[in-house]
Amino acid sequence: MIENKIAVIGTGTMGCGIAQIAAQNGFQVVLYDSDPEKIQGGLVTIKKNLERLVSKGELSQESARASISRISHIDTLEGLQDSFLIIEAIIEDREEKNKLFKQLSTHCGGQTILASNTSSIPITEIASNTSHPENVIGLHFMNPVPLMHGVEIIRGLKTSEDTYYKTQKFVRNLLKEPIYSSDRAGFVINRMLMPFINEAITIVGEGTSTIEDVDKGAMHCLNHSMGPLVLSDLIGNDTTHHILSVLENELGERFKPAPLLTRMVEAGLYGNKCGVGFYLWKQNKPQKVNHDLERYLKME
Ligand SMILES: NC(=O)c1ccc[n+]([C@@H]2O[C@H](COP(=O)([O-])OP(=O)(O)OC[C@H]3O[C@@H](n4cnc5c(N)ncnc54)[C@H](O)[C@@H]3O)[C@@H](O)[C@H]2O)c1
What's this model's pTM, rounded to 2 decimal places? Predict the structure, then answer.
């Protein structure tokens, strides 16, 4: 096992960010994705992100080149044995994650830490698929990974002190701040954030204020860097709905998704990812308020 080598499984939005930041901080990183094209796409994204940092004067050309040289990829899970830490960042699908951890358990020895970037699936459940649940932990990075300073570390019921300590050390080596959570729905951050977003949607849905004023209120009166509705569009209104439902399931009625959010998900108004939500989106930026939605709200 190599002390400074990690593996990242799933090279989508989160996996690429995690790989980039780990490589920038001196870790050898091996990438794996079930879709080989996603690995190639991921490598291109990481290179572009590093080049952008160089052009902004935030990273030297030499450091960018060294970071890229630390990243490799594999075609099968068999190539994972020598990583001390494996971070899973595949799609948020219970069955897929459980299946993957079963496979990882057969490919890795009793020393490897298996971390999941899940936003909502209990770590204790994921760990139950492995023969060493004491080595399994939640490592919940925030999006976009290179910019967001905090990382939640979630201890499952059987996670050992040693696994927790080593994971905390890893997060600090990435120059990030570990935030502790036990294995409860929504962990810490979504448990605080989701009721806030849900209430903002309720306020708009019941006609107390407008989409723009709710977002402006959060920015100008609460000093948030963006409003809760634009944020929900960015997260994906379907994802917001999913996380709220998970919270409601475990913690009760107070997390029930706002009726307007449910209607928007039914209508496919997911936000940035499809171009329409509370706002109309282009190139990852909100262009203007969704006037069709506002008209619908006035009719209600
Ligand atoms: N996107 C966010 O804002 C965000 C924030 C925090 C946590 N998360 C969590 O991070 C995880 C990844 O999210 P994402 O947004 O990066 O997803 P994504 O859809 O961008 O990427 C997922 C990747 O996983 C790959 N994949 C799917 N099944 C696989 C398997 N069985 N084996 C290997 N690769 C597989 C896909 O090909 C894809 O490249 C999810 O658990 C999500 O809940 C996401």
Answer: 0.92
